[in-house]
UniProtKB/TrEMBL annotation:
Protein's name in the database: SusD/RagB family nutrient-binding outer membrane lipoprotein
SUPFAM superfamilies: TPR-like
Domain of life the protein comes from: Bacteria
Source organism: Dyadobacter chenhuakuii
InterPro entries: SusD-like_2, TPR-like_helical_dom_sf
């Protein structure tokens, strides 16, 4: 730019005058939109929200700490060995960063601003507000107090240092937003249509999604505000929640050459660990012993859908992905610091279900909702059916949903019936024992689909019962991580607000810090 100015300064005035004509137009990118395109940004917000930082957060951190996965290596041992808090910081990029794969907070804020002025866009506004609640409930559950009311306003109001709001205030507003948005839908007005990757603009299904999210968030308050929890849970159930597979919230992916079109779970797992059968893995990962042992002990047919061991008939024969129950063996968490000799004998994700680029993403399922209804029944907040009936519906739905991953995921009715007969809901027993059964089932039913929710439910209820690891030099004193670490950049660029929030939350910003609702 300095050279350009120098050239123009030395050139004759006539030359300057002639070249200045149209100069501004030359600096306009003809391929860039000068206005917000709500449909495009809403699509992007959906994709970025669900996929952001999957490998670092859902797989290596939460997947390890919830003992779905294990690794022998130390660097990726955020969840396995409670090392390397840096993996947890990546989810903060939902606020902004890489223009291709991050910044859903900005996207949804711009969509809401763009559609909020036209009454005819009421359905687009309602869906955007619901998605905003979905996005922020993930962020606050990961980090606790975060920028919420001021978030995403750098462009619109030049607010580059947003204040941190309490999680209590954020939850209150998210629940209010869900209630207002659901009630504002108008069947006579247009929707996002195909720009909506989850429901294609179907209002009735978005209402059920909104009420299901309200049910989830309401139940999150059981330990800190049981009265509000009961109010919101009852409101959600009365409104109508996702109980049928036809209402399941999903996003479809394709096995194409464009990375963004592929299922990010499959792509992430294959890029980091399960690239090819046999030999070492990039991050040293396998399925965890806790998960595999539980599935084998309960004779859960999902084991053969989820898990394989690579075998060879001879030294020169090709590897075969074997789903035989007897072969499945999970790797213990935090048991190794170098490649174990029997590494090849441990179970990995099934390439015929999980590791498919065109596998769907199950965003919100009937299995989770039925388990929430079972808990509501135990608490006396729901009486239309029994907790046992809801539990059976959750198991059935949780097994049948794997059929969406292809033939390798189909579980027969006979196998489902056999599992329920061997693992019935407790007819007698304490509330704690029944809650443990519900929590453990959620830990299995939401495997990979929503590791974030599994972790949140474990923090709220303590179920399933997991034995922490205590690897030498770990960062938590042998305690399963309970919160993500807010990035160091916040201390540099938003120091005053960050310090205030840190003080309010006990003065720490570590993997052992706790969020408001975690008691």
């Amino acid at each position: 730019m300095k050279n350009l100015i120098k050239v123009l300064y030395l050139a004759p005035a006539l030359f300057i005058a002639s070249c200045d004509n149209g100069f501004e137009e030359m600096n306009i990118n003809p391929n860039a939109s000068t206005e917000v395109v709500p449909g495009f940004l809403f699509t992007r917000a959906q994709l970025v929200t669900v996929s952001n930082n999957f490998t670092g957060a859902a797989y290596l951190t939460i997947g390890g700490s919830m003992q779905h996965f294990a690794t022998y290596k130390e660097v990726p041992g955020a969840g396995d060995k409670y090392f390397n808090f840096g993996y947890s910081q990546g989810s903060w990029q939902l606020y902004g960063g890489d223009p291709v794969s991050q910044g859903a907070v900005i996207d949804i804020a711009q969509v809401i601003e763009a559609v909020s002025t036209n009454p005819a866009d009421v359905n687009k506004l309602s869906v955007s507000r619901i998605w905003k609640a979905y996005l922020f409930h993930r962020l606050t559950d990961l980090y606790g107090d975060i920028p919420y009311f001021d978030a995403g306003k750098a462009l619109s109001s030049q607010n580059f240092t947003p204040k941190y709001d309490t999680q209590q205030a954020i939850y209150a507003d998210m629940l209010k937003e869900l209630d207002e948005s659901i009630n504002a839908f108008d069947a006579a007005q247009p929707t996002f249509g195909n720009a909506d990757l989850v429901y294609g603009g179907e209002i009735a299904k978005w209402k059920k999604f909104g009420y299901s999210l309200m049910l989830r968030l309401g139940m999150r308050l059981t330990e800190v505000d049981p009265a509000s929890a009961e109010t919101w849970v009852k409101k959600a159930i009365a409104g109508g929640v996702i109980t049928s597979d036809t209402d399941m919230a999903t996003i479809a992916y394709v096995d194409g050459s464009i990375t963004a079109s592929r299922n990010f779970i499959a792509a992430g797992l294959m890029a980091t660990d399960y690239v090819s059968p046999g030999g070492d893995n990039v991050e040293g990962g396998k399925l965890a012993k806790t998960l595999v042992d539980h599935l084998k002990t309960t004779k859960d047919p999902r084991l053969n859908v989820i898990s394989v061991v690579w075998t060879k008939a001879s030294a020169t024969a090709p590897y075969v992905a074997d789903t035989a129950t007897a072969l499945q063996k999970g790797m213990p968490n935090a048991a190794f610091n170098s490649l174990p000799a029997d590494f090849d004998s441990y179970s990995e994700p099934n390439p015929n279900t999980i590791l498919k680029y065109n596998a769907p993403l199950l965003v919100f399922t009937p299995a989770e909702v039925h388990l929430l209804l079972a808990e509501a029944g135990l608490r006396g907040w729901y009486s239309a059916t029994t907790p046992a009936a809801e539990y059976e519906s959750a198991v059935t739905s949780g097994m049948k949903q794997w059929a969406a991953f292809g033939a390798g995921g189909v579980i027969s009715d006979a196998k489902i019936a056999a599992y329920l007969k061997a693992n019935p809901f407790k007819a007698t027993g304490t509330l704690a024992e029944k809650m443990e059964q519900i929590g453990t089932q959620k830990w299995v039913a939401l495997f990979l689909e929503d590791e974030y929710e599994i972790w949140s439910n474990w923090r709220r209820t303590g179920y399933p019962k997991l034995t922490p690891t205590n690897y030498p030099g770990n960062l938590t004193g042998g305690k399963i991580p309970t919160r993500f670490v807010i990035p160091d950049s916040e201390e540099q660029y938003n120091q005053a607000n960050f310090y205030e929030a840190r003080t309010r939350q006990g003065g720490t910003n570590t993997l052992s810090s706790m969020v408001w609702w975690d008691k």
